[in-house]
Amino acid sequence: MSFRAPLSNAIKEIRIHLCQTGAGSAGVRSFLSKEYLAIKQANPALPILIREARGVEARAFARYDLGAEKKVSLENLDESRVAAKLAELNNAN
After folding, report:
1. What gap in Å lies between CA 28 and CA 18, rounded to an integer?
2. Is residue 3 over pLDDT 70?
3. Tens digits of per-residue pLDDT, 30-87?
4. Closest by alpha carbon to 62, among 26, 16, 24?
5. Which of 38, 39, 37, 89 has its CA nearest to residue 59?
6. Are the C-beta atoms of 83 and 28 separated by less than 8 Å?
7. How far apart are CA 93 and CA 91, in angstroms?
């Protein structure tokens, strides 16, 4: 999925949790350093929250209409698989 296009209107918020130094979050850190700007430019009104904490499992949450949430694990994934998991959240609702 290209993150140059707007995400689904059903998504109201994206939260990404990751560890600043952990090997399991390396793919997420790399993905964010390359793609965050494109995602934000394509979705300027969408809150994208990045939460860093030592030792946490890398994962992403999407909040949809009516407060529904979905979660995917991003632990030990490379950049392309992180993108695929976020696309999965985008298409979930």
Report:
1. 7
2. no
3. 999 999 999 999 999 999 999 999 999 999 999 999 989 999 999 999 999 999 999 9
4. 16
5. 89
6. no
7. 6
Nearest of 37, 38, 27 to residue 84 by alpha carbon: 27
Length of the chain: 93
Q: Extract the tokens encoding 93.
A: 């609702």
Tokens at residue 21, please? 């130094």
Task: Judge contact between 69 and 36, C-beta under 8 A.
Answer: no
Single-letter amino acid, residue 87: A
CA–CA distance, 11 with 16 (Å, rounded to integer): 14
Q: Which tens digit of pLDDT belongs to each residue from 23-44? A: 999 999 999 999 999 999 999 9
DSSP state for residue 20 in the 8-state scheme: S
Give the confidence band of 92 by pLDDT, cuts at 50, 70, 90. confident
- The amino acid occupying position 57 is E
